[in-house]
Amino acid sequence: MARDGEGKKDYRVKVIDNITTPANAAHLKHLLLGEPWYYLKSTAYNDDDSTGGIPFESSWILMIYDNKEIMSPLMHLAHSILVKALHEQNLTVSQLIRIRAGFTTRTPEPFTHAPHVDWDVEHMSGLYYLNDSDGETIFYKDKQDTASEESSFDFSQNRKFTVDQTVTPKADRFVLFNGDTFHSSTSPTENDYRLVINYNWFP
Questions:
Q1: Coil vs helix vs strand at 197
Q2: pLDDT digit string (tens) for 164-181?
Q3: Burial 121-139 (b: 16+ CB within 10 A, else e)
Q4: Helix residue ranges per DSSP H, 46-169
Q5: How far apart (Å, rounded) are the C-alpha atoms in residues 142 and 64?
Q6: What domains are defined for the chain?
Q7: Rounded Cα distance, 114 and 93, in Å
Q8: What is the pTM of this model?
């Protein structure tokens, strides 16, 4: 399922710092940490049983917006971050798909979660980091054929991905990229947690 890409800029990975102010970023982080979080045994593929209980694959999520439904009182603040980031790039949203916060805690050694895309349709994605942390986001060069009927999960299985670039979490940093870009999060080992808001939308 592909959507009309007319007017869409082609972003492999674009890093945008200082989206708001340090005070606003810290306030949003404080509010997020006070919200109820839900456990995922597989960070990349939600509650998919195929991970087989791999150590450190788990994390916590907070759904903010999904399928046209506001699921958190923090929707307004979270959405304003996206609007600000896209405005600076002269981009807009035709339809919001999902806003989800992710919380990953410290592990004894770095653990890279499975390479994945967030949505198996043509779209745009963004990450907004709430705190300075280790635990880089890894972006890969590998692209799935848009004509393929294979799911992104099946495409990723037993594949050796080639790293394109990595981005270090930094408070008030936004990363903009095409939704078909396979990427992975990494668990922090030096910081207590890694806090990020993940955005998906149609341009």
A1: strand
A2: 999 999 999 999 999 999
A3: ebbbbbbbbbbebebbbbb
A4: 75-88, 152-156
A5: 30
A6: 14-45+56-197 (2.60.120.620)
A7: 28
A8: 0.87
